[in-house]
Amino acid sequence: MSGKIMVVGFGPGDVKHMTYRAKEALEESDVIVGYKTYVDLIRPFLNGQEIISTGMTEEVSRAQAAVKKAEEGKKVAVISSGDAGLYGMAGLVYEVLIAKGWREETGVPVEIIPGISAINSCASLLGAPVMHDACTISLSDHLTPWELIKKRIEAAAMADFVIALYNPKSGRRTRQIVEAQQILLAHRSPDTPVGLVKSAYRQRQHVVLTTLKEMLEYEIGMLTTVIIGNSTTFVYDGKMITPRGYQRKYTLDREKQLLAPHERLRPEAEPWALNGPEKPAQAKAPETKSAEKKAGEQAPEKTPYQWAMEAWQRLEAQREGSVTIPEGNAIFNQGALNGQMEEIFEAAVSPGLANKQFKPEQLHKLAEVVGDKGSIRYSRHHQLLVEIPTSDPEQVVNQLKNVGLLVEPVGDVVQIKACDFCDGEKFDSIPYVEELHKRLGGLPVPKTLKIGFNGCGMACYGAVNDDIGIVYRKGRFDLFLGGKNISRTAHPGQPVAEGIPPEELVDLIERIVRFYAEEGHPNERFHKFFKRVKEIEGFKYQDMRPPITVEPVACGD
């Protein structure tokens, strides 16, 4: 059987707004891959398909799982709300395929099935706010640096675009929408109409019509789309409307128009029309008597039209090679154009496995390498998490290692967490944690796997609460499996063995981890894996969850 990947945009969520082809693709598929909430929305169209569902931010694992299933001969539907090609899964599926050397003529067939995006569905509930030039900007800095997002907001605000803000706010990410409002207020009237639409065409749909000045007084979250009008947008009878420009081309209350169709959009009749000469290098704003500025007088602020024309001229000139754009003013990153794509390098940095004390020269070097454009964040796992824009990650790693820092990958890999062994005084078990780190540190796994290692029975660094907990006691090791150290249902790992001989420990842990790496489902946490398989290396699963009923809470991000 020939496999196939269908990337399905199912629209806002209501079945009435799903395309016929989207429904057809869901019904004919063998496997459904998607975010848990989205899988629930399309369940009426499922008829026994295998379901691979993951949480938020696990898009890469979903794409990888879809490709794997398709290569096994399955028809796979990868689902996205809205349109799969707009902040959806379409691009990521192609990226995963490209990394595997995929070619369209010989590889797994891919079909992208479009859907109604949030900008369209939300606009329909507000009235007609997207009748003129518009853009979408995601405020999530999970994959895009915030400084770059701010530049895009500024550019869109200056050019008078209608703007749709996606992912405006979450439980942990709250400042971005505030800063976005401040940028917009610098270029637009405080009374600019703004529409806030939550869960369009779903059960908890909520629509608010407000202004740019007052928008933050209302609830905004991950399920909200924020639509900000341009300078001509107005509100009439509870509807947010952006004119198409017809009041310039037509007189709407006249039966007979002043301009015949062939006369409309001519510069002499309508100087605002953007239909200048083919090569607009000499284009100028319309001259008036007041255009001549007196000596010493400050130049007037440019209009959105002038900004747009200037950008167009600069791009045309750059393409033709007639203009060199000064450094710092380039519209595009020249490194990216030359094939040197700058990436965000992420890593966990610490003084060492057992060492918890940074040296001044290490912190100085770290600050130097991270620079003004990067970020440093302390984690509860006794590491500094760094994000560094760079086109040469290897050079970054070498610089940090040269001053004695331990640099480790982040994400869905094995991470070894050790205590400080009482500042090295209880050093007997240190060689074993170092061997574990050598063999397993950074190994790819279905979901981040933390191995906690404590050097005495006090276990003061909380190893018993990690996915795999190891405690050194009386010359031997105790082992705990399946701990869960976050959420209101957190619990310690199951104590599965006491008194493991030192010479057996590392091999035993390696077998457990590699079994999980090979047999775990994408995004499946270790405690859930242990529960599913029932037994690992002879250790049988027991439910360690607290015997209380706890309402689950959706995470904001």
A few lines on this structure:
The chain has 557 residues and is α/β, with parallel strands linked by helices. The protein has 15 helices and 24 strands.
Task: Note the main attributes of this structure.
globular, 21% strand, five-stranded mixed sheet, single chain, five-stranded parallel sheet, 15 helices, 557 residues, alpha/beta, disordered C terminus
Secondary structural class: alpha/beta
Tell me, briefly, the overall form.
globular
User: Hey, roughly how much beta strand do the residues contain?
Assistant: 15-25%
Helix amount, in percent? Answer: 25-40%
Give the tally of β-strands. 24
Mean pLDDT: 84
Number of helices: 15
Largest sheet descriptor = 5 strands, parallel
Distance between the termini: 38 Å
Radius of gyration: 29 Å
State the low-pLDDT regions, or none: 270-297, 322-339, 553-557
Strand order of the largest sheet: 3-2-4-1-5
Please outline the helices and strands.
Layout: E1 4-9, H1 20-28, E2 31-35, H2 36-41, E3 50-54, H3 59-71, E4 75-80, H4 90-99, E5 110-113, H5 118-126, E6 127-128, E7 134-138, H6 146-158, E8 162-166, H7 175-185, E9 193-198, E10 206-211, E11 224-228, E12 234-236, E13 239-241, H8 246-249, H9 304-320, H10 334-337, E14 343-350, H11 360-370, E15 375-378, E16 384-390, H12 393-401, E17 406-408, E18 414-418, H13 430-440, E19 449-454, E20 468-473, E21 476-481, E22 494-500, H14 502-519, H15 526-533, E23 535-536, E24 539-540
Parallel strand pairs: 1-4, 1-5, 2-3, 2-4, 6-13, 7-8, 18-19, 19-20
Antiparallel strand pairs: 8-11, 9-10, 9-11, 12-13, 14-16, 14-17, 15-16, 20-21, 21-22, 23-24
